[in-house]
Write a structure and sequence with these properties.
five-stranded parallel sheet; 2 domains; Helicase, Ruva Protein, domain 3; alpha/beta; Rossmann fold; single chain; two-stranded antiparallel sheet; 11 strands; globular
């Protein structure tokens, strides 16, 4: 069993009946991106982050975003060190391998902006000094799609920092029954053991970077992104960063499949995760997921 398969099976002990969501979250992790989970409360978003961290024996922290949370509360700041008689940087909760940002859209725009440098550059800046975040660094942020009171919509610049958006969804009847049975004596997350380590996580990321994409697949990614920009019903199309993320995600799906090369199917699967949350359609309420599915059908794929 490969490392990726072992991690997926291990997380499946906690998240029942959601193998696709687990594999897609793992793909974003090994592709080096960040994940936005947009779903209803109580569907296992927090457990997914904790189970992923435990499977790789990585540190995991949770930040509950609220309107009164300040940027320094997450990045850290300078504190007076009496013995040394100088100000010393005290790292905030951002300095962790896996960060669960719960209800990110409840933070003010100023605090949301503090996440941009961390997610885009892997570092934070305090008083002109740059501080490097751990490697790997993975943000799994959540937002509740049905509540708007007391929330601040995520700006397009921040949405563009997320490689993918994912919804876990309700479990089927058999999976929900399995959830009940597995938690009669306690939660399985409490006994979940690591099946890999930090070195294996980095090795998977390196393996992902070595996956081959043909020139035809590069052209296919470019044509998919261009189709969103030229469409008459689109106000904001996919950015070049979206194209890069599609390429990285396609590589990650190839790794999960045990291949050293990507296929058009990998690109299409990547497009369904990497593009919808970045698009703004002219008609309010239009479904960007359905729109991307239509784009995939209209843009010819290489053989």
């Amino acid at each position: 069993m490969t490392t990726a398969a072992a991690v997926i099976a291990n997380i499946g002990k906690v998240i029942k009946g959601k193998e696709q969501a687990i594999s897609e979250a793992l793909a974003v992790f090994i592709a080096g991106g960040h994940l936005l989970l947009e779903d209803l409360p109580g569907l296992g978003k927090t457990m997914l982050a904790r189970a992923l961290a435990r499977s790789f024996a990585l540190d995991c922290k949770r930040i509950q975003f609220t309107p009164d949370l300040l940027p320094g509360d997450i990045t850290g700041g300078l504190v007076w060190h009496q013995k040394a008689e100088e100000f010393v940087f005290n790292p905030g909760p951002l300095f962790v391998h896996i960060l669960l940002g719960d209800e990110l859209n409840r933070a003010t725009p100023r605090t949301q902006a503090a996440m941009l440098e961390a997610m885009g550059e892997g570092r934070v800046t305090c008083d002109g000094q740059q501080h490097i975040l751990p490697d790997p660094f993975f943000v799994m942020a959540t937002q509740n799609p049905i509540e708007s009171l007391g929330t601040f919509p995520l700006p397009a610049a921040e949405l563009d920092r997320f490689m993918a958006r994912l919804a876990v969804g309700y479990p089927d009847a058999a999976s929900e029954r399995a959830i009940l049975q597995s938690q009669q004596q306690g939660h399985p997350i409490d006994t979940l053991q690591a099946v890999a380590g930090e070195l294996e996580a980095r090795a998977l990321r390196e393996q992902c970077r070595q996956v081959r994409l043909t020139d035809e697949l590069h052209d296919y990614i470019v044509r998919l992104a261009a189709a969103t920009r030229a469409h008459e019903s689109v106000r904001l199309g996919a950015s070049p960063r979206a194209s890069l993320d599609m390429m990285k995600l396609a590589r990650a799906f190839a790794v999960l499949a045990g291949r050293e090369y990507a296929t058009p199917d990998d690109v299409q699967r990547a497009a369904q995760l990497a593009m919808p949350h970045r698009l703004i359609l002219r008609a309010a309420g239009d479904d960007t997921i359905r729109f991307v599915a239509q784009i995939i059908l209209t843009v010819p794929a290489p053989r």
